[in-house]
């Protein structure tokens, strides 16, 4: 733990145990680099400091506050989650794995992260970085369930918060996917790999997949339309819609992708225009 105290990243969500603030940070961090989350996280919590504040706002306001983060469906899920907590749980974030997993958009990693970083439970959290550390530490790939079991077993009693933050930083700063600093690793004496031979992290669940190309993708077009709608409605004229989404010569594609945003609850069509709900 001494390495962590000397090298820990100063991140705003590490300064709170408020379950709502922790949950917001974890939803934002899913599939998004830490550096991109810091400013939107602060802005979002200034606007929606409590579950009730988020639930009481229109979903369009939550989508607007999500600007810059991408994967805008997470904003819709966060609003749905807040509404459900107000309606069914007294606006309180639950403190059990089962109840957290029932919430919209909350998966196994996010649920465990809330248990650890808000409620200080002694369970392991396994993201891409941690899965890579575990595989290299034991010098063999893990499937998802085994990685979670191994992470849980390593957590020292009553040290879940600190241990898991240290593991996350170890994977992000030292045991990196490319060019890991094995010589400078604080757990080198316990590591079975030491950077020698084939990387055991390859093939470990959660570490080997690469994000699909963004440039020119449907995801890019979706993001362009939502960004435009944050500024105001967009006409449903096929040519105008295609231009906004970056495909001026392919209005059929633009219409198809825009329809997925409507299905996901990110966009509505009203009075001949696309707009935020």
Short structural description:
This protein is mostly helical and 277 residues long. Helix content is 52%, strand content 3%.
Structural features, described:
This protein is mainly α and 277 residues long. It has three domains: 18-117, Orthogonal Bundle (Endonuclease III, domain 1); 128-190, Endonuclease Iii, domain 2 (Orthogonal Bundle); 218-275. The protein is 52% helix and 3% strand. It contains 14 helices and three strands. The protein has a three-stranded antiparallel beta sheet. The longest helix is centred in the first third of the chain and has 16 residues, at 73-88. The protein is globular and about 65 Å long. The N and C termini lie far apart (47 Å). The relative contact order is 0.11. The mean pLDDT is 94.
The amount of beta strand, in percent, is: under 5%
- Largest β-sheet summary: 3 strands, antiparallel
Query: Measured on Cα atoms, how large is the radius of gyration?
Result: 21 Å
* CATH third-level topology of the largest domain: Endonuclease III, domain 1
Oligomer: single chain
Indicate the percent of residues in helices: 40-55%
| Average pLDDT, all residues | 94
Instruction: State the domain count.
Output: 3
- Gross morphology is globular
Compressed to H and E, one letter per element, the order equals HHHHHHHHHHHHEHHEE
- Supply the CATH class of the largest domain: Mainly Alpha
